[in-house]
Amino acid sequence: MTQNNSPGKPGGKAEQPYVTVHIYDQTYHLSGGAGDASGADPQRAHVERLAARVDARMRAVAAVGRTADSLRVAVLAALNLADELARAEDRLRELEAASGMADSADLHARAANLNYLLDSVLEEDPNGL
């Protein structure tokens, strides 16, 4: 996703699909979406949700902070979002590790059960199959 400041056709190039969003009273034209044959951008709603989240976080930071400098507000909001992301990644790793141990224990139990069944069948037919 990149910012496209001129949504027109620069230098005669074909117009690229873009999404216009508003973040902290600024308008951004973000390109990089891939429109389908009808011209619809399947990522448009996602980009708009992300922009709304960034806007909300910046406004929350500005409401509790003492700065009106939009760059400082943006950096603090970015740090806040990065912290949220890092915590979510840590939680995901914990869940994946717990899930991996459960899957591994399940596989060992199944292997032991199959080994027992195989031994039982072989004991019933001592001459081989």
Question: What does this 3D model show about the protein?
Answer:
With 129 residues, the protein is mostly helical. It has one domain (2-100). The protein has 2 helices and 3 strands. A 3-stranded antiparallel sheet has the order 1-3-2. A hairpin with a 2-residue loop joins strand 2 and strand 3 (26-31). The radius of gyration is 28 Å and the shape is elongated. Residues 6-12 have low confidence and may be disordered.
List the topology elements.
Elements: E1 2-3, E2 18-23, E3 26-31, H1 44-64, H2 70-124
Antiparallel strand pairs: 1-3, 2-3
Helix pairs in contact: 1-2
Q: What's a concise summary of this model?
A:
The chain has helices at about 45-65, 70-125, and strands at about 1-5, 20-25, 25-30. It is about 60% helix and about 10% strand.
Keywords for this structure?
single chain, 129 residues, mainly alpha, three-stranded antiparallel β-sheet, 3 strands, elongated
Q: For the CA atoms, what is the radius of gyration?
A: 28 Å
List the domain count as a whole number. Answer: 1
Average pLDDT across residues?
79
- State the helix count: 2
- What is the terminal separation in angstroms? 63 Å
Question: How would you characterize the largest beta sheet?
Answer: 3 strands, antiparallel
Give the structural class: mainly alpha
Strand order of the largest sheet: 1-3-2
| Helix proportion | 55-70%
Order of helices and strands: EEEHH
Low-confidence stretches: 6-12
Number of strands: 3
Strand content: 5-15%
What's the shape? Answer: elongated
